[in-house]
Amino acid sequence: MKKTSILLIDDDDSLRRVMEFSLTEAGYRVQTAASGEEGLRLYEKEFFDAVITDITMPGISGMEVLAKVRQRDAHAPVIVITAYGTIESAVEAMKQGAFDYITKPVSRDELRLTVERAVKMRRLEKENVKLRAEVTDRYCFDSIIGTSEKMKEVLELAGRVAASDASLLITGESGTGKELLAKGVHFNSGRAENAFIAVNCAAIPEALIESELFGHVKGSFTGAVRDKEGKFELADGGTLFLDEIGDLRIDLQAKILRALQEREVDRVGGTKPVAVDVRVIAATNKDIERAVHEGAFREDLYYRLNVITLAIPPLRERKEDIPLLADHFLKKFNKGASVLLEAAALSALMAYGWPGNVRELENVIERASVLKRGARITPEELPEKLNKGNRGVADIILNLPEQGISLEDLEKSLIIKALEKHKGNQTRAAEFLGITRPTLIYRMEKFGLK
Fold first, then answer.
1. What is the Cα–Cα distance from 12 to 330, expressed in whole angstroms?
2. pTM value?
3. What are the Cα distances from residue 442, in Å, to 285, 340, 354, 430, 446?
4. What residues form DSSP beta bridges with 340?
5. Confidence band of 228 (pLDDT split at 50, 70, 90)
6. Which of these CATH numbers, 3.30.750.24, 3.40.50.300, 3.90.180.10, 3.40.50.1820, describes 149-311?
7. Taking the CB of residue 50, how many other CB atoms lie within 10 A of it?
8. pLDDT recorded at residue 21
9. What value does the CA radius of gyration of the chain take, rounded to a whole number of Å?
10. Does the pLDDT of residue 135 top 60, yes or no?
11. What is the DSSP letter of 402?
């Protein structure tokens, strides 16, 4: 991996060598210059992730270096060095666009922390520039594939609420595209120029989730060797996407509620709240209303998040979108080459239940694109469950009574039969039914089955 590069400009040979050693030891690649003139010559020849310059130097001063650097790259983080007696000049440098300043004598920890923050800011800005460049073709609502009536309704509502700052709750099974929709809302809002920060609440270890969300101060716990900004602060001015919020601990739910109401967060171990301006979009694949009823989710947070709900339907409820999605993924994984999906293969895709939704369909098409023998994808390139499972369904003969039938009773009966067939093994029963084990458990709970 390419090392982060730092340009260090200072006419004090001793201080320059000490700072160079400290930054090199921290893992940075450091280029040094003994004057403003030499520093600018180096800057013209090479890209640097950050620039550190003394303010007071013979010839070209640090202020002039700052002006020249920002003239070439308005987003380049410049850190200025100043003596205690000239703090006013450092403040003036900040007004002119400097990222931060450090004072002499330079503390090693302060130097490293300031450079780390500058580099992080630079990286986030580059990521945001890249994301903004992708807005038109990736995160415009028109690019979210779906012509079914249910998807049209979701996208139409998303388009109407994007311009507001209202909190959103996106619901839907795993793999339906909740994060993609959240990005669409963000990049069609007035916050599009600022950060979109995504957090999977279920993927972060429980001991770290509070620090990840709200940040911490140095020394607040073992391993907290420096202050750290949390995701709320990193998303300041932009959007924070809290995925799988239904898995969040109750005590942290209270802190998120406070952040939404007071527009400020408390870092772990901190004594002063930090103001934040964040739009929160939450997502879950759980039944949050049921979790509220059972006391597993705060009712006040639910209503705070649930200003607008965008419910993404599972793929099995919008099967008319499968041919369009399959064609999109074929083009993606075959780099635009013409690949034909045979009618029998498409029929298998249409008949399958898709417990993993769009994500599972994408994986199936990627697999088929790798295994194909020519320019055609046949049923043989599809996973066995798509062929065998659907033949089994076609063989079922139902004697439908004249007075009608309860679909829920039928579903409950099928689940019971599958569990009996596999002697209570939930994993094998779920595979037999073509659903995931968590989906099976959810439905067992729904029907009161143990």
1. 61
2. 0.59
3. 11, 38, 16, 11, 6
4. 376
5. confident
6. 3.40.50.300
7. 24
8. 94
9. 28
10. no
11. T
